[in-house]
Structure formats: structure tokens, C-alpha cells
Amino acid sequence: MAVDLSSSYPPEVRKLPSVGYHRALAAEPILSMNPSLILEDNNIGPEHVVTQLKNLKIPMKQFGQYENTIAGTDSLMREMGRYFQKEEKAEALCKTLDSDMNHAKQQALWYDKKPKVLTIHFGQANNVYLVMTKNSTAGKMIDWAGGEMAVDGERGMILLSPEVVAKSDPDVILLTDFGYDRLGSTEEIGTLPGISSTRAFKEGNVYRVEEHDMVYFGPRTGKNILELQKLIHGDK
User: Which helix (H) or strand (E) holds 209?
Assistant: First the structure.
């Protein structure tokens, strides 16, 4: 068994061999695993590698493409439940997700302030930051948590200069695991251009989040939003 780099939950999967990033795959690492089945969601690439795998007649199961909503996530979980003959487990996960979402949305009504949140994806490189916008999955989650994204944009992620990051002056900075772990501490994060002058850094509101949890909806999304509420509203 092997996974791609974006597979991070449950923690045990991190111990499995990796075949690379799901959108930048090569055939060789996959073939070295001698797979008898490849599970995918039509979000893998590049196209010529997918064609290679199909031409080699390796069995591939593609799960359906659903809208990027909680309802779409429920539909995907039910489809996977049918495929693996775990319908009851899938239904239980759907009920838990919907219950957690309702809890989070009700709790968000109690907050009288919407903190401004800057979510930095993969930290800093070449003196620019890749940040998530209001139009991203993370933007929806922050909104449900009772906050608002510090930056807007037509795309889900955009590149920003340190000057623009500083000017956005967020109340809270969320840094995904790759960038946070590479730097190692909040103090080191403060050495990045444009970060130390923000209200978030000065008040100690810089936190680590899992990239996968902020980029995709899944069975734990409701619980993740409840955790975001604790971070951005200071309910720790």
C-alpha cells in the first residue's frame, strides 16, 4: 500500500511509502509498488502519466466528482461506503459531519466580532507568499467559524508580497504544516518579511494548521471548524 504526499490522516498513513504529489505524478514510483488497484478522484496528473497507467491495464477506480460543499462531501462518502461495502460506517460519518457543522454554525452566531485571518499556504519562498483567499475552501471554513479572510481574490490562492501581507494586518495568522514545521517556531516565523509588523504576530496569534484540512472538505471538516473557532476567537 502507498499514498501520495497530500495524504496526512490518519497519522498512520504518514508511515506508508509515498509515490509523490497527486498532481505531479511519475509512473515509475507507482509501478515500483506493484499496485493491484489505484484509487483516485479525477484530480491526479499529469495527463500523460494517467494515460500510461491506463495503457498498462492497472485496475483504477475513480470516485465521482461532486460539488465542493458539505452535501457533496456526504455524497462522496456514501459512494465510497458502497464501494467498500461499508454503507453503515459511511452513513455514520455523514451524520457526524452534519452534526458537527450545525454545532459550529450555531456557535458562530455567539461571536460579536469577525477576526481577520491570513492563511499562508506552504510558508514563504522567493520573497512571496502563497495565501488562501475568501474564495477558497479555507475561506468557507473561516467564514463558518465566524471569521473572515484577510485577502480576497477570484482564485482560491494568490501570491502576495511581504508588503501586502503586512498591510493586510490580520488578527490571526494560520500557517500550514509544511511552512510552519520548516521554520520550527513562532519566533522563526517572525523573521519572515512582513510578518513581525502584523497585529497577529505581535499578539501571539500565529498557529499551525494542517494543509489538507484547509484545502479539502472531508468527514472531519466540522470538527476542524470547531478547532478553528478556538484559535481565531481565543477560546483555547
Answer: strand 206-209
